[in-house]
Amino acid sequence: MKTNETPLYDMSDNPTECCPRFKPEPWDNQQLDFKDKRFVRATTRGLFHIPLNMNRVFNRTFKAIEEADALDVSQTLVLSRDPSPWQGEHLFAVTKDVPGQDMVSLSGDYRTKVFEGPYRMAPKWMDAFEDELERQGLDEEEMYLFYMTCPKCAKTYGKNYVVAVARVEPDEARPH
Question: Quick check: is 21 in a domain?
Answer without folding.
Answer: no
